[in-house]
Amino acid sequence: MGVLLFAKPEGIPDDKRQVMDDYIAQVKATLNSAEDIQTRFKLAVDEMQRVFQPISTWVPHMMGGMLSMALLNKVMSNHVDDDTLAALGQGLAGNVTTEMGLAVGDITDAARASRELMNHLNQTELDAKTRLAEASALAGGPEFLQMWGDFLETYGVRGPSEIDLSRQRWYEDPSSLLQMIVGGLTHSTQGKHREEYERLAVENEKAAHKIVDAAYQGGLGFIRGPLVRRLTRVSSNLMPLREHHKFLMIRFLGLVKPIILDVGQLLHEEGRLALPDDIWFLTIPEILNAFESPTELSTSLLQTLVNERRADHERYREMTPPRVVTSEGEIPIPKLDGGDAHAGALVGTPVSAGIVEGIAKVVLNPSQEALNPGEILVAPFTDPGWTPLFVNAAGLITEVGGLMTHGSVVAREYGIPAVVGVMDATKQIQTGDRVRVHGDAGYVEFLDVDVNTDAEAETS
Question: Which one of 253, 274, 347, 427 counts the least CB within 10 Å of its CB?
């Protein structure tokens, strides 16, 4: 309650970002001090037990921010409209994921400054690494590559499906990142991302003033007003912390991954693994045991475990997991309340207010797809590796997610309507379909009128 009611909230996200930076620097120094691969791996395992210590320093502040927003919605729901309350979650300073999206826009602007460089990067028949390697000889290339390098220094450990340590990061495979930049070159304008962010920040400030003014009205205004003023201050300053813990975890894993790859290479060279990548199918205790008691975990047993798990992995990839499994093993079938949804509408969970119509773009892999301005992003899920796509998105539809999952949070911050938990959305919606996203009611409506017919009607 001290954070919620008394502590000074200003500057906390930046302070905790410094805590994060200091911790990562300390871990990096510790791991680099190891004399061999085995010792480095053991040190990494030890550090895994301590990774939540720095996170614990900002959890109370993060919870204070979330609680303040929840209380504001409860206290003020009958005094201001939902759009005004939703605007409090937009244009916030200090969110590491938002800052990453803005940085991608800055790199795109750097590429846009040179027509020669734009044309080169648009040669999608060339792989990403080739285009980047050849960019230095072009007009604007050195400046672009400097910004690119600075970005990877900070965010290169991120990427699509980044929570899976075996998946490649942007510093390993920049394809998805470059694809997003190319999409921005084709379908956006210089500085648009910064202008949009500033617009949302202004809307946030206006909403805060409107909410506080409304709070002072009425018979209990002298009590409600000061409380709401405090809650708006806390939420605006502390809600950006919600992405800090994930960013620290990903940065930590970015230090650990090369060590695991080195262990895989070592075991492969010793003839204990058929492939270095087989390391991903062993547990940490098994790897430690392979080092400390090599006779107990024989080469044949090690490879047998790997082969069985790799086969299971391939089999599981073809399955569709249930939405919910109870602790008793039951699989309930949820019945979502579509409210006033029209017949044929797809029902999900409303997570970002507003209603928007547009052309759907189904994206299964952000390294292969770009989003045009005004299109509605339809995806199985999103994580921070997808964030740059939100710059052009007019709306969001995902198959999985909840109120506080990544796509929902970013959608609210970008001010775009979103519905998540839409069963088989990427199969039921086709790229090119015209849809209406009801971010308030929680459903997606197919529009029967063809886009071309619309355009012809408007011009006739």
Answer: 427
Tokens at 121, concatenated: 């990067």
Q: Determine if residue 94 is left, alpha or beta; phi over 0 gives left, psi from -120 to 50 gives alpha, anything else beta.
A: left
- pLDDT digits 0-9 by tens, 337-357: 667 788 889 999 999 999 999
Residue 209 a catalytic site member: no
Q: What is the dihedral of CA 69, 444, 402, 360, to 10 degrees?
A: -100
Phi/psi at 421 (nearest 5 deg)? 70, 30
In the block, residue with structure tokens 């249930």: 322
Q: How many CB atoms lie within 10 A of CB 174?
A: 23
pLDDT of residue 454: 40
Strands annotated E in 395-439: 395-398, 418-420, 434-438
Residue 398: what are its φ and ψ, rounded to 5°?
-130, 160
List the structure tokens of 168: 């490649």
Q: Please list, residue by residue across 23-61, b when 16 or more beta carbons sit within 10 angstroms of its beta carbon and e when fewer do.
A: bbeebeeebeeeeeebebbbbbeebeeebeebbeebebb
d(CA 141, CA 150): 14
Q: In angstroms, what CA-CA distances link 304 with 262, 293, 418?
A: 21, 17, 45
pTM of the entire predicted model: 0.89
Give me the chain's average pLDDT, please.
91
Q: Which two tokens stand for residue 244?
A: 């800090």
Q: Find the catalytic residue in 79, 193, 244, 406.
A: 406
Tokens of 134: 């050849």
Is there a contact between 90 and 413 (Cβ–Cβ < 8 Å)? yes
